[in-house]
Specification:
Layout lengths: L5 H4 L3 H7 L8 E4 L13 H11 L5 E5 L5 E7 L2 E6 L4
Parallel strand pairs: 1-2, 2-4
Antiparallel strand pairs: 3-4
Amino acid sequence: SKVIKAADMVKQPWFQKAVNYTEPIDLFVITGHNPVRTSVSSSTMGTVFEAIRSIKPDVPIQAFGGHTHIRDFTVYDNKATGLESGKHL
């Protein structure tokens, strides 16, 4: 596997093509080994969320994260949430 910084990933052609898909999109699902709360310094979920929102402001987003080993839930906006399952999923 190869780790790519979120700030670089959202600029890659495959990501831009996926977000700019011309057919209707029901939901974006984000998964990653990152905290779901954007206030946590190691989280890059906010970077991915903002990249999607700048192009598709009305499509729901569900993020699934990890890394902090706590159960957590956060609301990004009225159509987007993040869930972190905790230590043992």
